[in-house]
Amino acid sequence: MSQHPEAPASPPAQAPAPRPGRFGPFGGRYVPEALVPALEQLDEARLKAAVDPEFAAELARLHRSYTGRPSILTEVPRFAAHCGGARVFLKREDLNHTGSHKINNVLAQALLTQRMGKRRVIAETGAGQHGVATATAAALMGLECTVYMGKVDTERQALNVARMKMLGAQVVAVEHGSATLKDAINEALRDWVTNVDTTHYLIGTVTGPHPFPEMVRDFHKIIGEEARSQILVEAGRLPDAVIACVGGGSNAMGIFHAFVPDAGVRLIGIEAGGEGLESGRHAARFASASPGVLHGAMSYLMQDEDGQTVESHSISAGLDYPSVGPEHSWLRDSGRAEYRYAVDGQVMEAFQLLCRTEGIIPALESAHALAGAMEIGREVGPDALLLVNLSGRGDKDMHTAATYFGLLDGETS
Amino acid sequence: MTATTSRGVGEVLARCRAEGRAALIGYLPVGYPSVEGSIEAMIALVEGGCDIVEVGVPYSDPLMDGPVIQAAAAAALACGSRVDDVFRATAAVRAHGAPPLVMSYWNLILRRGVDRFAADLAEHGGAGLITPDLIPEEAEDWLAASDTHGLDRCFLIAPSSTAERLAVVTSACRGFVYAASTMGVTGARTSVSGAAYDIVRRAREVTAQPICVGLGVSTREQAAELAGVADGVIVGSALVRVLAGDGELSQRLESLRELVAQLAAGVREGVREGER
Ligand SMILES: Cc1ncc(COP(=O)(O)O)c(C=O)c1O
Asked: Which residue's CA is the nearest one to ligand 1's atom 16?
């Protein structure tokens, strides 16, 4: 037994410093103490990078010559005929390298990883798009990469698993819990707390402990900044509504952010209604949930009476998450943004419609935003101007879609 | 701030110190293998020689836990264990003479209401809370509720904690400071990491509070090693693994008592730092 008479008397409990990273009551940093130094290091690195012209120039160069930015705006009149005749423009994040908006955040965080002197990145992924983007950036920058993915998702997004492996990443299928995105995040956090010295956890959406929600939003806000000036040129005015699907909420925060000060522009997030609210199999957090803490942040959370997480469900792996980025919770409670949900049937209809009317195959996640545009267009009428974030392309979803529509040999639906 | 409360673990830790040894703290989750079985097992811990029982609340997303405790928590939830059951466990442990500290992920406490949870805990013999995913900066409500209800609050420190963090965290603790012996999640390890000695030494520089070390301890030898530097040794996964073994529950409880007796001998064999 040790003796330590020389230790000073315990100081009085100090009033803790103001809580960092809050959006109203949401957000915060509910994490094991072991991770706090890494979060502080990250916060410092990203704040420094934010005012460093060299970082900005390097990221801009990558976006221009690698991502393919600016992404274009496409007007879709034949699809718009099914949206009450409103004018509809799509922001084409599906055309980015790797096929979704995810690359915007990933390249920026990978640069930060290098600046922090870490040599390994880990990531969680649902649809596989964030995993593919992370594996891509790791290949580009010579980082080691491990991606955690729920077992259920490795099956429904098998193509993306193969892509990640081709790119040199290790893919770990997580089998416990619901074997989807939330369980992949648990496992990634366990890895991080064990290897935090060498490893950066490259979170793929606007969730998690501070500074992730704010930082990831900032790395995606380029979507809205581009789209805002593009639509002013193309349509001569601001849109009546900006519509995006909301999983964790990164593509939505990315396109919303630049429009937040434009009070006349409605910001509308579309969640996954799954098989309908009554079925209990959905991810419509704002329609059903209450505030709670999961994965480091306070936000709306699908939970039972005791506070245990309730499993979400969506036909699209990328929206299958029981919580949502804390800034969305604040935009919603403060009244600045509205949230609705689209059920699987509506989503598949919108998915097929965009394929057939415009020759664009959207990601199932993005098809939720399209389903939202169909509904909202019909409500607001033909004079309306809608801007929809097409967050990703649908190659990864071909198996799900072909099965749904009975297109596979020997199958009928 | 009072260093101890009448409900808290301060008295037990002081008694252990007076005996010239470290305290033994045993963790088990409520509801595994059943609610009744888990309470029997916690009583077995006390009978076997645990000075303090860490009562775990099963949670759907236990991100600080390794495979053994994850599996037990999942099984506990699958067989219908509820947060309410925790208070039966704390009352039983207290009735058998040991102070129970509840270990819970934060959302379960938030959901019940921080003050209500604290009131219920105090009413059912609880000594306080160990909060693995709560840092003092986010704990305003809990700091207030624990003062109101006279409960201990054990925040965690880790090998990665800077001197500045150690000061912030230890000053918010009451009862003891929970030092994670390694970077990582719960789970038995074969040897005590050097980081364990380092974190205890660094924490002693900023606080006079008792420091108990956990994560990875499974044997009498490891308990003895850590007892040389720490005020208490915390054992979790190794106990859960015994409880998860084959055979009748009564046999497994017997094995549990045997392991606890070994560990209790270990904490009495602590070697002072200078003598190591
Ligand atoms: C194409 C696409 N859109 C949207 C999402 C949902 O994520 P978020 O809400 O963060 O944009 C994903 C996630 O995997 C995705 O792949």
From this structure: A129
> Is B221 one of the annotated active-site residues of the chain?
no
Which DSSP letter does residue A334 get?
T
Identify the segments of chain B with pLDDT beneath 70: 1-4, 271-276
Ligand 1 atom index nearest CA of A126: 14
Query: Is the Cβ of A13 closer than 8 Å to some Cβ of chain B?
Result: yes
Distance A1 CA to ligand 1 centre (A): 54
Closest CA to B63 of B235, B186, B195, B189: B186
Smallest CA separation from ligand 1 atom 4, residue: A365
Tokens of A356: 């057939």
Catalytic-residue membership of A124:
yes
What is the mean pLDDT for each group of 10 consecutive residues in chain A (413 residues)? Answer: 39 51 96 96 98 98 98 98 97 98 98 98 95 98 98 90 97 90 95 95 98 98 98 98 98 98 98 97 96 98 98 93 97 98 98 98 98 98 97 94 88 48
Handedness of CA A398, A403, A404, A405 (dihedral sign): positive
Structure tokens at A20: 């960092």
Going A289 to A151 to A269 to A210, the CA torsion angle's sign is: positive
ipTM: 0.95
Q: Is B54 a catalytic residue?
A: yes
A25 touches chain B (CB under 8 A): no
Look up residue A212 and give its two tokens: 């992730």
What pLDDT score does A410 carry?
61
* C-alpha closest to that of A92 among A359, A409, A412: A359
Separation of alpha carbons B66 and A34, rounded Å? 15
Kindly give the pairing relationship between strand A73-75 and strand A87-92.
antiparallel
Distance (Å, whole) CA A229 – CA A245: 21
Chain A residues in contact with B270 by the CB 8 A cut-off are 1-2
Kindly state if the Cβ of A98 falls inside 6 Å of ligand 1.
no
Is the CB of B66 inside 8 Å of chain A's CB atoms? yes
State residue B271's pLDDT score: 67
